[in-house]
Amino acid sequence: MLNASAVACIEQVRLGFVASVTSGGRPSVSPKGTFVVLSDHKIAFAEIRSPGTISNIDHSPEVEVNFVDNFRRKGWRMRGVTQILRRGSADFEEIFPKWEALWADLSARIRAIVVIKVSDVKPLSTPPYDDGVTEAEMIALYKEKYAKMYP
After folding, report:
1. Helix or strand run (H / E) with residue 146
2. Average pLDDT of the chain?
3. Tens-place pLDDT, residues 92-125
4. 78 near 121, Cβ under 8 Å?
5. Helix residue spans in 4-134 (DSSP H)
6. I want to staple 80 with a disulfide (CB 3.0 to 4.6 A). Which of 30, 64, 113, 116 is the partner?
């Protein structure tokens, strides 16, 4: 399900924008910067301070997540059903070392890990690629743009 390019994007970017639905039926998007690939059909993020997202998932476990490489202007869109593994549970303790290894300082604050069983994966890209712009040109353009924003 997750090809090598999707896995590389997640592991390089780590920041996914999670779209969930509130109990009132409203859309909600929240960035999560602790994504880990668990398998070719499972990804997960650590819940550190996401009470709204957790409440939404408790109400409706289906989510969509977008990962975008800001320089390449390409990424991946994934849809799936969540499972919340709370700290102290055997399932949490089994996979927690992955987050501990990557985010040692934050790991003590992790209250749960949200696992997403991915059912649909689609690539994302910006429209200039349709017009023949190359990835190298896109990267150069956004390096210049970000250099001006953050000299």
Report:
1. helix 135-149
2. 97
3. 999 999 999 999 999 999 999 999 999 999 999 9
4. yes
5. 4-13, 51-59, 90-102, 104-107
6. 116
**Statement: the pTM of the whole predicted model exceeds 0.90:** yes
* Three-state DSSP class for residue 12: helix
Q: In terms of DSSP bridges, do strands 16-21 and 42-47 run parallel, antiparallel, or are they unpaired?
A: unpaired
Strand, coil or helix: what is 71?
coil
Alpha-carbon dihedral angle through residues 100, 102, 103, 108, given to the nearest 10 degrees: -10
Q: How far apart are CA 64 and CA 95, in angstroms?
A: 22
d(CA 86, CA 97): 14
DSSP 48: S
User: 30-42, pLDDT tens digit by residue?
Assistant: 999 999 999 999 9
- pLDDT tens-digit map of 3-26: 999 999 999 999 999 999 999 999
